[in-house]
């Protein structure tokens, strides 16, 4: 049986009459973008804090940060997602659990997915931040301290500005990963890009068109991210240092 | 000014400093020399508490460095330190390198800090470079900026940790000249260095260390004319051949 290509499928009204199939794809794309970007914000903030804590000369703090990183990066993303979505609401204090369950189902899926992706990625960001701090010459910290700056001031004004510059390239990879990992969230029913693609196949029996469209959409997102991060790299370049002029 | 009293330090089983005692008087220039691994850098870093030590104590201007209740940041703010690898902050202009600690630590306002920074930058002959970044300067220039940065804090004494060891030979003198000038103005200085010419010209006393111990601690005349220990004699014989 020969495959019948039909790129016009996207312009057909959907089977449930809520616009065209293209509208489905766009809705999925929006969900993917919103989910990934909000997860990225969480990941950057938490990851920066945890990454810094891993390097501080305080056993308790760095121990907690290490445990955090090991937990979130050694459990499969899918398992973590099921935990946040199915298990945690039952473990929370009754009031908080009920509040979560009172949300509409889409919001429940979105919140669980966002928190899950955010925490998972934050562990990876934390490792990058830590490696950036450790990559600085040891004397930088001493120079800050020797001038009378406190340790927090030395981190804030001396070490972190350089450490973050060093880790822009690896953070770009993590940023790209958030978008790709977000596809896993279709497993709890969240209708993001990949899920919409699959749904379109179920309704139209045009799998090639659907998956080509999904592939192109992910590629486009990540091309934009790469260009954006390259801009960031250029912006934070230090004259006379690391590729700067 | 600086009193080092029976300081010992070890990393695990490895003894880095053993029972080191010496002192630096106000206005005195003391050069610390010795073979690599003798503990001289560690000793000088103990003076402002960058390296903790297990036994003994160090007093700087009457303040104990080892006492747990000492505010080390406050003490360090008035003890200038210059490092082997300059350690300017690469993401800041020279002007900001000079101002940062003045503003954050001494709470000077921006303009005052900038003015003071420029004054010392001028003194090390680099006023024209204030807008540049450290990476755009040569090693010798960076080290002179580092000295200016320490001086802008109005230090009561200066610690130099091998300030010329990472420099090309032609740049060593421009840094030593600044240090010599500083010594002539009466700055209290403790310098870890291999520059024996500098020691001969500028130092009042020379300390020779080996294997974590202070082996010689003498006036420079006595040290160069007639070192007592065999180890120092060997060291001088090797180093002064050139």
Automatic annotation (TrEMBL), chain A:
It comes from the Bacteria. It is found in: Cell inner membrane; Cell membrane. Its main location: membrane. The keyword Cell membrane applies. Keywords: Cell membrane, Membrane, Transmembrane, Transmembrane helix, Transport. The chain crosses the membrane at residues 33-53, 65-86, 106-126, 208-229. PROSITE patterns: ABC_TM1. InterPro entries: AA_ABC_transptr_permease_3TM, ArtM/GltK/GlnP/TcyL/YhdX-like, MetI-like, MetI-like_sf. It is a multi-pass membrane protein. Residues 29-229 form the ABC transmembrane type-1 domain. Gene3D superfamilies: MetI-like. Pfam families: BPD_transp_1. The keyword NAD does not apply. SUPFAM superfamilies: MetI-like. Belongs to the binding-protein-dependent transport system permease family. HisMQ subfamily. This is ABC transporter permease subunit.
TrEMBL record, chain B:
One of its GO terms (molecular function) is ATP binding. PANTHER family: AMINO ACID IMPORT ATP-BINDING PROTEIN (PTHR43166), GLUTAMATE_ASPARTATE IMPORT ATP-BINDING PROTEIN GLTL (PTHR43166:SF9). This is ATP-binding cassette domain-containing protein. It is a peripheral membrane protein. Belongs to the ABC transporter superfamily. It is found in: Cell membrane. Gene3D superfamilies: P-loop containing nucleotide triphosphate hydrolases (3.40.50.300). SUPFAM superfamilies: P-loop containing nucleoside triphosphate hydrolases (SSF52540). Keywords: Amino-acid transport, ATP-binding, Cell membrane, Membrane, Nucleotide-binding, Transport. It comes from Aromatoleum toluolicum.
């Amino acid at each position: 049986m020969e495959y019948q290509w039909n790129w016009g499928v996207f312009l057909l009204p959907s089977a449930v009459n809520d616009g065209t199939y293209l509208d489905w794809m766009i809705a999925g794309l929006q969900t993917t973008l919103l989910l990934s970007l909000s997860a990225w914000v969480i990941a950057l903030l938490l990851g920066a804090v945890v990454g810094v804590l891993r390097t501080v000369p305080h056993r308790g703090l760095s121990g907690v940060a290490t445990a955090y990183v090991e937990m979130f990066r050694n459990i499969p993303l899918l398992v973590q997602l099921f935990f946040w979505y199915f298990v945690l609401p039952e473990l929370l204090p009754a009031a908080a659990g009920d509040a979560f369950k009172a949300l509409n189902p889409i919001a429940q899926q979105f919140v669980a997915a966002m928190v899950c992706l955010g925490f998972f990625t934050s562990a990876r960001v934390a490792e990058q931040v830590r490696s950036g701090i450790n990559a600085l010459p040891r004397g930088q910290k001493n120079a800050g301290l020797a001038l009378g700056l406190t340790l927090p001031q030395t981190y804030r004004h001396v070490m972190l500005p350089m450490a973050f510059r060093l880790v822009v390239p690896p953070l770009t990879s993590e940023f790209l990963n958030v978008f790709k990992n977000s596809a896993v969230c279709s497993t709890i029913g969240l209708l993001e890009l990949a899920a919409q693609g699959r749904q379109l196949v179920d309704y139209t029996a045009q799998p090639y068109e659907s998956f080509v469209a999904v592939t192109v959409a992910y590629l486009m997102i990540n091309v934009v991210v790469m260009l954006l991060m390259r801009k960031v790299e250029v912006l934070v370049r230090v004259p006379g240092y690391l590729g700067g002029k | 000014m600086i009193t080092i009293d029976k300081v010992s330090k070890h990393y695990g089983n490895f003894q880095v400093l053993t029972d080191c005692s010496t002192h630096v008087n106000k206005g005195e220039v003391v050069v610390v020399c010795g073979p690599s691994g003798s503990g001289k850098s560690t000793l000088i870093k103990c003076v402002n508490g960058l390296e903790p030590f297990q036994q003994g104590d160090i007093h700087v201007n009457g303040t104990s460095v080892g006492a747990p209740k000492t505010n080390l940041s406050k003490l360090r703010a008035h003890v200038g330190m210059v490092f082997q690898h300059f350690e300017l902050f690469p993401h800041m202009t020279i002007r900001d390198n000079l101002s940062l600690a003045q503003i954050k630590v001494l709470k000077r306002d921006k303009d005052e800090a900038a003015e003071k920074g420029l004054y010392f930058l001028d003194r090390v002959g680099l006023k024209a470079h204030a807008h540049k970044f450290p990476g755009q300067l040569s090693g010798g220039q960076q080290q002179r900026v580092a000295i200016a940065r320490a001086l802008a804090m109005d230090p009561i004494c200066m610690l130099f940790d091998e300030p010329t060891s990472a420099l090309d030979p032609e740049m060593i003198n421009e840094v030593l000249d600044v240090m010599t000038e500083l010594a002539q103005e009466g700055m209290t200085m403790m310098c870890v260095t291999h520059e024996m010419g500098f020691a001969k010209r500028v130092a009042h006393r020379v300390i020779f260390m080996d294997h974590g111990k202070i082996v010689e601690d003498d006036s420079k005349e006595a040290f160069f004319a007639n070192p007592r220990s065999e180890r120092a004699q060997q060291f001088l014989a090797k180093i002064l051949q050139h």
